[in-house]
Specification:
The complex is a heterodimer of chains A (108) and B (180). Chain A has 108 residues and is an all-alpha fold. Helix content of chain A is 76%, strand content 0%. In chain B, helix 1 runs antiparallel to helix 2 and helix 2 runs antiparallel to helix 3. Classes of the chains: A mainly alpha (108), B mainly alpha (180).
Chain lengths: 108, 180
């Protein structure tokens, strides 16, 4: 198998995930984009591990670690999303403007 | 590896990327979560073809089993609309800019990867069955493994603290939100 094939698949996954993170309004859908990007990184790790055929199995072990970190990340992220929803009945990201400097305050 | 593996990998890759595109473009939130199952399952198949069996099954268990269920729970608890909803995406200008950024990143990655790794071939790599992975994790990688367990514990405690309603700080935040 050419090494380029899994790398290009990972690039496609990363591109789709990046578009999802940047273009979605719903916070849960943004988290799905983050998951896609992490999967692209995992696929690259496994592909390079298979290519190098290292004795430490670094690619696969690091992929397991990334999967664990991603599970922790999505658990915390969804807890934060639920807390935001409890407080303001909406998880639209462009409505969370509390830390945004208002135009009038900036001018005065 | 023989040609059949390459062809199956290409098909799985097309499936993964296509369903990933559907995840980020569909207008129904539940469908996005279900297409995510397809994308992650296809990636698990790719792991199998790369002879990383244990990683493939962990992918199925953790991602398809746990993470997608968590996402579906979050969609339910935030009262996501069933059916087509028009307010899932940002405005048209932001979407165009997002597509441009994503395509530029993809073009950069493809350029670098083709320049660096075209012509390289994966031959029979190290197999990643459970015995090999277990021996590697508990010999070479045991210290990162322990650090990761502490990280998981911290994430668990953090999620519980964030979800509780009777923490003193959370009560103040609720009253602020109520006054808004």
């Amino acid at each position: 198998m050419p090494l380029l094939l899994p790398l290009l698949v990972a690039t496609g996954l990363f591109t789709a995930g990046l578009y999802g993170v940047l273009a979605r309004r719903n916070a849960v859908l943004v988290l799905m984009g983050v998951e896609l990007m992490l999967n692209a990184a995992n696929l690259m790790l496994v592909a390079f591990g298979a290519w190098l055929a290292d004795t430490l199995l670094a690619g696969q072990v690091l992929t397991l670690f990334v999967i664990t970190v991603a599970a922790a990340e999505v658990g915390l992220g969804l807890a934060i999303v639920l807390m935001v929803y409890r407080q303001r009945r909406s998880i639209a990201l462009d409505e969370m403007t509390d830390l945004h400097e208002s135009r009038t305050a900036g001018l005065s | 590896m023989n040609a059949a593996v390459t062809v199956v990998f290409a098909l799985l890759g097309v499936l993964a990327v296509g369903s990933a595109l559907l995840v980020v473009t569909t207008r129904q939130v539940v469908h996005a979560a279900l297409w995510l199952v397809v994308a992650l399952g296809a990636v698990a198949g790719c792991y199998l073809l790369l002879r990383a069996e244990f990683v493939a099954w962990v992918q199925v268990l953790v991602y398809v089993g746990a993470v997608v269920v968590l996402l579906l729970f979050a969609l339910m608890l935030t009262k996501a609309p069933i059916g087509v909803s028009e307010d899932l995406d940002a405005g048209l200008a932001q979407r165009v800019v997002a597509a441009m950024v994503a395509l530029a990143t993809g073009a950069l990655l493809v350029t670098v990867l083709v320049d660096g790794f075209s012509g390289e071939v994966i031959d029979q790599g190290a197999t990643g069955g459970a015995p090999a992975i277990g021996a590697s994790v508990f010999r070479s990688w045991v210290l990162p493994f322990e650090v990761l367990s502490v990280l998981l514990l911290a994430a668990l405690v953090g999620a519980i603290v964030l979800s509780r309603r009777d923490v003193p700080g959370a009560g103040a935040a609720d009253s602020v939100a109520g006054g808004r």
